[in-house]
Amino acid sequence: MTSSRRIRIGIDTGGTFTDVVAVDEDTGQLVSTKTPSTPANPADGFMAGVHKVLGLIGATGADVTAISHGTTVATNQLLEGDVTGLGFITTEGYEFVLEIARQAVPDGYGNSYFWVKPPRIVPADLVKTVGGRLDFQGNEIRPFDEEGAVAVARWFRDHGINTIGVCFLHSYANPDHELRMREVLRREHPEAVVSISSDVLREYREYERSMTTLVDAAVKPKVGHYVAQIAERLAELTEGEGSIPFYIMKSNGGVLSASEVVNQPITTVLSGPAAGALGAALISARAGYDKVLTCDGGGTSTDVSVVLNSEPTLTTEGNVGRYPSKIPMIDVVTVGAGGGSIAWISPEGSLKVGPRSAGADPGPICYGQGGEEPTITDAHLVLGRIPPHLLGGEIPLHPEAAQAGIEDLAGKLGLGVTECAAGILEISAWNQANALRQISVQRGLDVRDFMLTTFGGSGSLLACRLVDILGLAGVVVPPNPGNVSAFGLLTVDVKNDFVQTSIARHEKLDLEQVAATFDALTERAAATLTAEGFDRSEHRYVRSVDLRYFGQAFEVRVEAPDGPIDQAFADTVADAFHAAHRELYGYDFRDDPQQQVEWVNLRVSGVGPIKRPEIARIDERPAGGSADEARTGTRQVCFDPAEGYTETAIYWRPDLRAGDVLQGPAVIEEFGSTVPVHPGFSVRVDAYGNLVMTKEATA
């Protein structure tokens, strides 16, 4: 079976909908759609999305050149705390590394009587130790205890523990003992799924390395099963003639082939949010904005991130649920404020919203699928801010059911229906605003300098209120905002990260050793890219270094320039560290000879570039025309319960043209999303079809 077309597909699975975008690589044609997610088996929703978008673009499975996928399989497992039956093997004498952990004060010193430590991921009785010891340079102090390793492997086998993480002391410097432990497990307990820390994270800090390795092991079985299921279904799509290249989005802003991802599944824990941040960054940059906060509103949660100089910021200090994961990931903060977030009354009698969600099944009350608790979507429907249907009419909604649900909640609170619905949305807006503050103000950024890019099915519904609360410069709403994450998957390069701890004072830096470490990391990156099918001439490598002032507990990462590793290179890296430290914390010790700089981790990212789809311009409105040509009617909408309902103009977004301007109050609708424009706001349609929304007083 041969094909003359080349179609690439991006699929992002969310809590309520699966978003799909396809691009014809020859013509640049973009087609996007949505289909309901299937939480019981996400693969069903995935394949439904593939078939639907292929029908819309007029193609078959034989035309598909690649599929990139943002998945929540690992994320959901960790958020639900589903990590039972997990074993841990560590160095003899260090079996309490999970108890020692790191102290945390989640509510602040003023509100906590006790320092709370993260809960254990492995119970104490499933932690076993093996003799042998390496020093911090990787030199063997005591030999590996082969006999003890065999006994531990057999114990786990006999007790039915088939998922195991291995983290030996200082194995980041020398993996030999961990490799030998893995061989023992393969021989004595062949059914075991094993992760070793020297493969997962070659960085020092024993607790973080142990936790990251254990999280990787915990999600391996489910991720492996899901990927295998998708691969089998995709083979049916091509009728057995060839296979479709299948990539999974990683948390670091790159993709990796599914066959490789199953060996490092922890890299997918923020798969979906990462794709959205990348797509929003590209769209915002094309619109002329390089300082952006992103707000990705879905059915279950809202994910926010920061874009600086048109690139999402990265971190290695992330958490997924209650589990720290020290891998490179796009810096995302998640709050339980999605369209399906449930409104409820606390024991004290206060109205609360989220984080529990109605999800896709049963969904909000207005879905008519058995939901009995009012949600954010129900509140929007009652206030008229969304139409009585979703997906352009494919999913009808039931306003009367939503009204009854909100009315019941309002009665318990002693409120009117309108006040209760508006209160639900106000609480949700402040929840989102607090997440945006956490990702920006707490990192030393002034939100007044930033535009907000909103996307996802519910991401734009509270955009005007967020501008009011935070004092943002304005809002950019991309075309097809419900599919920005899926679009982002088509813009992502293949990317893999490699790290090696190599601690040294700047004044005593061994430049030859630094060069040798960078060369070794580059070779590992090159081998991975070659295995992914990239010619050596296509490879691109990005070097970076984690540095700190001597005595500090944590590091600041800066990019390292290309070229020879000499004193000029080292001084350039140190200068970049001083500047980054001042930007983050407001001070540096550049001119203090007593304060020494320390190099901690060397990193190399291997990048295999892909061709990005073009963002097309849209037609301008002919002379004499106006945005009124896109107006489809009016509807009673409430923006302020004190003012009541207002007869509000409704616009169909696909009929808007570049240069159109309209004033609030208004509601702009399209297939996968709705944008309520509050009174006092104006909207301008730019050359790429983005809605640029600003407060009229500062427009």
Write up this protein.
The structure is a single chain. The protein is globular. Helix 2 packs across helix 7 (206-237) and helix 10 (376-382) crosses helix 12. The protein starts with 6 loop residues before the first strand and ends with a strand. The strands form 10 sheets. Strands 13, 14, 15, 20, 25, 26, 33, 36 and 37 form a 9-stranded mixed beta sheet that branches. By secondary structure, it is of the alpha+beta class. It contains 16 helices and 37 strands. The model is unreliable at 107-114 (pLDDT under 50). Strand 31 and strand 32 (644-652) form a beta hairpin.
Count of runs of 4 or more consecutive helical residues: 16
Chain oligomer state: single chain
Silhouette: globular
Give Rg in angstroms. Answer: 26 Å
Task: Give the percentage of residues in beta strands.
Answer: 25-35%
- Indicate the mean pLDDT: 90
Helix content: 25-40%
Largest sheet: 9 strands, mixed
Q: Count of DSSP E strands?
A: 37
**Could you tell me how far the N terminus lies from the C terminus, measured between alpha carbons in angstroms?**
56 Å
Which class best fits the helix and strand makeup?
A: alpha+beta
Would you identify the regions where 5 or more consecutive residues have pLDDT less than 50? 107-114
